[in-house]
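pasting for ref. prot 1 ->
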Amino acid sequence: MKKVVVTGANGLLGQTLINLLLKDNGAYEVFGVSRGANRTDRTDFTYIDIDITKHDQLQNIVIKFAPDFIVNTAAMTNVDACEGQKEACTILNVDVVKNLAEISVKSNAHLIHISTDFIFDGEKGYYKETDTPNPLSYYGWSKLKSEQVLAKSNASYSVLRTILVYGLVNNMSRNNIVLWVKDTLESGKEITIVDDQYRMPTYVEDLAMACKIAMDKKAQGVYNISSNTLLSIYEMVLQIAEAFHLNKDLVKPISTATLNQVAKRPPKTGFDLSKTNRELGFYPKSFQEDLQRFKDSLI
């Protein structure tokens, strides 16, 4: 039985990954660490309420578990909040990763870490794992810094870069694009959405599966995980409306320039998935297909 520690166990990816691992007929013993009470509906794993920014406390607890794998799903991901709260962003997105790398070395554990398309400036799109990063926001900088921390460490690790993760779990503390669009249109409200930013959104079930594959293969280095089709955010919203049979006339396009967002966003990201296909044997689908899977899961 492989021992797995999941940080951010209460979050969207944390809960989804725990559910996936516990489906596997006792192949994994799971330890979840997160702030506050256990938000999952499960009692078949060990849950620890901990502030993971407490360096020594995290080390003592995780090393005691003697994990084979650590999956770090915890992060400060609100891009504008990171711009205004740089210290908090650095502590959670960089310092915690440095600590987890040390813990991984001491435990001889393989570390899976989640990164983002926002490490790029969005000038070209379809980024390969080897393309040169140039973050436009503090959030992007913090995630790039976390990757650099791992690259300089002696830890065995996989970095999974991802884009606009969506899905649904118990007692969610944060919304995501699909749920927000669905809820807003169901209530008959108009949505104004940018038509000049391009992304490849990621179904959380796929990201969790990629974490599991990276663990099982002990994949080394950086991998891109997203859906396989580049869409403007406006096109995404129209596809969400269509999938859930909602009123597309309520969706109005606007330009990024009119938004005055606190943090700059890359105009066009998206990933080249060929390394992921080749080395992980993982072949993501289109946003449209993933939306249907997500919709079917809600029934």
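and prot 2 ->
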Amino acid sequence: MFAMREQWSSKIGFIMASAGAAIGLGAIWKFPYQAGLNGGAAFFLLFIVFTLVIGLSMLISEFVIGRGAKKEAITAYRTLAPNSHWKMIGQLGVLGCFLLLSFYSVVGGWVLIYSAQSVVGQVIKDGANYEQLFGAVTSSPVITLTGLALFLLINVVVISFGIKNGIEKANKYMMPLLFLFFIILVVRSLTLEGAAEGISFILNPDFSSLTGEGILYALGQSFFALAVGFSCMVTYSSYLGKEVSIPASASSVVVMNIFVSLLAGLAIFPAVFAFGIEPTEGPGLLFIILPTVFAQIPFGEVFFCLFLLLFLFATLTSSFSLLEIIVSAFTENGKRSRKKVTWISGLVMFIAGIPAALSSSILKDFMVFNKTVFDATDYLVSNILLPLGSLLIAMFIIHRMDKALVEEQFKMSNNLSNGWYRIWRVVMTWIVPVTILVVYVNLIGIWKL
């Protein structure tokens, strides 16, 4: 990543880097299949509400903590609340990032393998069965472990040398290109015969299909998609200059994230219904539907290859932030070699990711609470640890962090009235913790929504 005290070169650079960290598997891969499993438009509407009210407020909070402390996650809480146990929030973030990266890297490996196959023209072919292709990739221990190893290797190489201005500058070009290719895909998907049913599925809410567990997933998705709850954005914002408005920057990241999620839904679900595929396909939805849609476009293999490479870049920029918070936690005092810590972390991550990588093959029958290791880790991170981290961050910034410093960071370099600051404090004081606690109550079955 960036050396401590280094600042982003511009506001747009920080926004694009933060969007790159947030917009990855959460918006492009996970949102479509979660929406497909949990009622479509009703899930999407709830996701938007959670993201605008809770996710945005949480993102602002992490930005305030990071710029206020000018330190990485664990040290930030130790600096702002010395001689206390609040540093455990940063430690929870490191643990959460470790678990998240253990299955995130598996999917990143899938994207990497698909990208390599697409480059040599082995994905989109006449008469190809894309469901079988995805099954062949995920059910092969050799392929999944190779993808996992290569994906982590890229992360280790980059993080060992630090993410300098190359990543920030690349984000300025790659993220807009990702939007452009998504829009092309959406236009083609919407013109397919039978697409209207898919449009209705993602835009016409039917709340009768939404369960209490679906509400939990929508909340978890709002945290997952914005990379909040594990203090990743605390580390990113520690490099932020005083000239940048935190609320404005956070709002830009949130709007881009919601827009990408909408594009993902509009690209995939019209095609799902047009080709008679069940929207409840699950994690494989992206890898099965996108090739089907691109096959309908002239030069589809070229477009699909470019999209996969851009998607791979977005996935990597997200994983960089996850690995960086782990590495920075062990190199903050300068007593350990960054390269050595990074390579050791990469090796440990590979070992930790093996069970999730084999969840569709050798370990497919090994269940944890009736879920595969991959699904159980995803559930633990997205629906338990991320909300827990957010709850603790809300308590910290309202009840422990210096109020004058919080207000100073919130109002710095913007023309917002005191009313917006008070609204944000009300959300963080009451709405965020109450919402999370209600969802947790539903989770453990004390009160079914």
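The mean pLDDT is 84.
The chain has one domain: 11-443.
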